[in-house]
Each structure stands twice: as structure tokens, then as C-alpha cells.
Design brief:
508 residues; TIM Barrel; 8-stranded parallel sheet; alpha/beta; 3-stranded antiparallel sheet
């Protein structure tokens, strides 16, 4: 008998069996009403993100990152040409909320091709005299992503890359683990679960924190109040990602959801928070700050007023936007809870500006700011540094498959499955993360020079405008109700920063 005929009979028989099963079963109405072909619905639903990426969506359409953005990160991380040809695809005049950076008539000299040396403008912990205060070597750093949410090889790749790029890596609230110890500086994040510095009952343990940070290259401690993608909810690590290693690190049960409480047990209000900050800073000598999404603004006004007298205070504040990413969150929290970064940050900065204490705090932005134009806007609004998370994931291989919460990330970035993590080479990907950070710093500094500013922190709200889609534009200061002098270094600071950057030999 002809081989093709045999194959046809076998395939036909299998389809008949599937059709009979579909008609008889009662669990799935689509299969019952549309035997065999109803299964294609599940296939297309499962592969929808990938199909939209490569076949349907335009280059500038997709969310959270469109193809143009992903292409730029990929090209930059591979140290390939990240330029475009033939001009912009954006409809500048009719685009709503479109950012325009205003170039100076006499810009600063062009940068050397390899110029990417952009240290922080402020000394972290300096205003409060912390024993281990320091000037950050990079204004771009790795944001909080926990081991558990990310795989061990992905954490290791980012840490190795941080060492190459001269930036730091935030541990995330999941604790400090062996994957963090490959040469990169760290910021230890302490969440409501106190993983890595907790008692057997889950309370905060100061002595364990002191021992932990002393044994690792930790440069600062960040107290996470909330994060943009799931504010007011606490952390969520799905059961599929809770391996024996992670369970041992966090002190939880294997194979069960690991849920951090919504609020801290070590403090309950602004005053006790500041007492806690000072206690941790005194015991460790490190700068101590907080991270939070923004909702009600009374907290921030109260915090700023409490810091006016200078007796207590946080060293840095990381503001996360409601558009921030996460490995797992309820849809309603990700979509509707917490203000977007620009609105939230403007309100927080305004509270501190009104209290006159902005120069005592290092402001850090987090939430889709890992592109030069977004980062420059953040600096113009008063941010001093930028943390990158999902952009960092893209640089080490993430393909935006949207499967982070399932534990089945196909490229081994956001999973604990050995089947997938074995495909991620930490040494190779570390070079790509470092290259992305360097490219972002280079482009950020190039934009600053185009504005006539020697450092991103010298770019002011008057350097940027927002187009409203109706042939009108407004200055950034007007859009966000900034008072004159807000987000502007004083003349002495400006001169010092310009002199500091002049020693870096960055121009051709």
C-alpha cells in the first residue's frame, strides 16, 4: 500500500477519535459544537502574544514594549547598529502626550563613541552623614527582581553584567542568594516578608540583616513599601516557582504560593518608619531608603514635613509607577491600582520641594524608564537615577512571551524549570546586559549634550515639551505644575557638576 495513503488513513483515524471525544465530552462547549477545529482556539489563545509580535502588530503598537523598543534593546545588548533610517514613524503633530526634547542652538561637543561614564550627581547617604555614603558610579542600575521571580542564571547574568558596566543590582525582596555574588554591587531590598533577615515567625531580625550585608557587597538597603504592578497587595511568588532552594531561602513551604503581607510589621506610620530607617542605618552604616508606588499623597507630605528638621530621614526614595512590571499580579491591580510614574513622581517631588528638602534625598525612578528619552524626562522632573527591570530582562533574552506567572518562560529568564533555564548562559548574557546599560547611558548623555547640559541632572523641565495631539505643546513644568526652581540645581551645584564631568574626557 502507498505510504502516503497509510499516513492519510492514520491521520484520518486520529481526527475521527478526537471528533468523537469532542462531541461526547461536556466540559468544553467550543469543542462540543466545533469538533477538532475548536482546538485551534486554544492554540491561537496560547500563542497570541508571539503571533501578534511577529505577524500582526505594527513596530510601534505593542505593550508593554513595542517592537521598536525591543529591537533597540536587542541591538544595543548585542553591540550592533541600533540606528534607524528614513526618519521617524511617529506622527509627531497628532500624537497625544508625545515628548519633545528641545535641542540647544549651541550644543555641547559630540561624545566619543565609547563615552558612557555617567556617575550620580548626589552622594547617596551624604546629607545624613552615613558611614558608608558613596557617589553611585552609574545613574542607570538594575531594578528589584527577586530570585524566584527570575531564574538563578538570569540573576547571575545581571550581576555579572553589573560588575562589567559599573552599576548595581537590586536583589528584590526575595533575599540575597548565591546567584547575586558574582562581582556586582548590590542594593539589598527588604520587603514585608523580611526574607533573609527574618525570625522563624516572620518578624524582622536586625542581627541577621547586619550579618547578611556585612558578608556581601551591599552598598545600600531599600525598604519596599509597595511596587507599581501590585501596590497594596504584597509580593506573590506562584507555587510553580517555589522550588526547594527558594523555599529554604525564604522559609516557606515547597510548591505553595509564597505571599508576602501587604504591610510591614516592623513599623506602622511615618514616625515609626523613620525610627526604623535610622536604626538600620546606625546598625549597618549603609544609606537606607524606601521604594513605593504612589496612591494617596498625604503620606508623602507627612514624610517630607517630618524630615524638615533634619533629625531623621530617608537617604533615597525609589518611586515605582503603576505601569511597572511583575512576575505575577491580579489583572485589576496591574491595570488600575497606583498612579503612572510621571504623575506619581511629580506629586512626591512636589511634596518634598514644598518642604525644601529635595537636596537631602536621592530620587530614583522605576517603571518603563529604560529608554533614553524616558530617562531624560525623569531627570528633568527631578529624578537623580533610574532603575531598569523588564528592559534588563529583554537584554538577557526575554522575548515578552507574557508567561512570567506560569513558570514556563521559554527562554529561561522568569522560570525555575531546569528544562528552560539550561538555555540561558550567564556569562554570555552578562555581556549583553552590560552593553545595554552602557548604550543607555551613552544615549542619555548624548541627549543631555544636545540640550547643552553636561550631565542629565542638569537638564531642567524647560528643556522638554509635551505635544497634546491638537497642534499644541506645553512645557514640562506647566504640564506637571512645577514651581520655578523645582528640579533645577542651584548655581553652585551646577558649576560643581559641570567641573566634575569635564574631568571625564567624554567628548571627541
Amino acid at each position: 500500500m502507498n505510504g502516503w495513503l497509510i499516513a492519510l488513513i492514520v491521520v484520518g483515524g486520529l481526527l475521527f477519535v478526537v471528533a468523537v471525544h469532542d462531541v461526547v465530552q461536556r466540559r468544553n462547549a467550543v469543542w462540543r459544537n466545533f469538533p477538532v477545529i475548536g482546538h485551534f482556539r486554544n492554540f491561537f489563545e496560547t500563542t497570541g502574544p508571539e503571533m501578534r509580535q511577529y505577524w500582526i502588530s505594527a513596530d510601534n503598537q505593542e505593550q508593554p514594549f513595542n517592537r521598536d523598543q525591543r529591537r533597540w534593546v536587542d541591538a544595543s545588548s548585542r553591540q550592533r547598529d541600533n540606528h534607524i533610517g528614513f526618519g521617524t514613524e511617529a506622527d509627531l503633530e497628532r500624537s497625544s502626550n508625545y515628548l519633545i526634547i528641545k535641542p540647544a542652538v549651541f550644543p555641547l561637543p559630540a561624545l566619543a563613541a565609547a563615552a558612557d561614564d555617567v556617575p550620580g550627581a548626589k552622594v547617596l547617604g551624604g546629607p545624613r552623614g552615613r558611614v558608608k555614603a558613596f557617589r553611585p558610579a552609574s545613574v542607570i542600575n538594575g531594578s528589584a527582581m527577586s530570585f524566584g521571580s527570575l531564574s538563578g542564571p538570569a540573576i547571575e547574568a545581571i550581576n555579572r553584567g553589573a560588575a562589567i558596566a559599573g552599576c548595581w543590582q537590586n536583589t528584590g525582596e526575595g533575599g540575597l542568594v548565591r546567584h547575586h555574588l558574582h562581582g556586582g554591587d548590590l542594593v539589598f531590598q527588604m520587603g514585608t516578608g523580611y526574607f533573609g533577615c527574618r525570625t522563624p515567625t516572620g518578624a524582622f531580625d536586625l542581627s541577621r540583616l547586619v550579618d547578611l550585608v556585612a558578608a556581601a557587597p551591599v552598598r545600600a538597603v531599600e525598604i519596599k513599601l509597595s511596587q507599581g504592578a501590585k501596590p497594596g497587595l504584597g509580593g506573590i511568588l506562584p507555587a510553580a516557582k517555589v522550588t526547594p532552594e527558594i523555599a529554604a531561602i525564604r522559609g516557606v513551604e515547597v510548591g505553595k504560593d509564597c505571599v508576602s503581607p501587604p504591610a510591614h510589621s516592623a513599623f506602622r506610620d511615618v514616625s515609626s518608619l523613620l525610627d526604623f530607617v535610622e536604626m538600620v542605618a546606625e546598625a549597618t552604616g549603609l544609606p537606607v531608603g524606601i521604594k513605593s508606588a504612589v496612591g494617596e499623597t498625604g503620606f508623602w507630605s507627612h514624610l517630607a514635613r517630618q524630615m524638615e528638621h533634619g533629625e531623621r530621614g530617608v537617604d533615597f526614595i525609589t518611586i515605582d509607577g503603576g505601569e511597572g512590571g511583575t512576575g505575577a499580579a491580579p489583572l485589576v491591580f496591574a491595570d488600575h491600582v497606583a498612579l503612572p510614574w510621571k504623575i506619581g513622581f511629580a506629586r512626591v517631588y512636589g511634596a518634598f520641594a514644598e518642604a525644601g528638602v529635595t537636596r537631602r534625598v536621592t530620587f530614583i525612578g522605576s517603571g518603563k524608564l529604560g529608554f533614553a528619552e524616558a530617562a531624560l524626562m525623569a531627570f528633568a522632573m527631578g529624578a537623580d537615577m533610574i532603575n531598569v527591570a523588564r528592559e534588563a530582562m529583554l537584554s538577557v533574552g526575554c522575548i515578552q512571551s507574557m508567561k512570567c506567572h506560569t513558570g514556563r518562560c521559554p527562554v529561561g529568564v522568569a522560570t525555575q524549570s531546569v528544562r528552560f533555564t539550561r538555555g540561558l548562559d550567564p556569562e554570555l548574557k552578562s555581556v549583553r546586559f552590560a552593553a545595554y546599560v552602557k548604550a543607555l547611558r551613552h544615549d542619555l548623555l548624548a541627549l543631555s549634550h544636545a540640550c547643552g547640559a553636561a550631565h542629565p541632572s542638569l537638564v531642567t523641565p524647560d528643556h522638554l515639551e509635551i505635544i497634546d495631539g491638537h497642534f499644541h505643546a506645553a512645557r514640562l513644568r506647566t504640564v506637571f505644575d512645577y514651581e520655578p526652581g523645582w528640579a533645577v540645581p542651584d548655581p553652585v551645584e551646577c558649576g560643581q557638576l559641570e567641573a566634575f564631568m569635564a574631568t571625564r574626557n567624554l567628548t571627541v
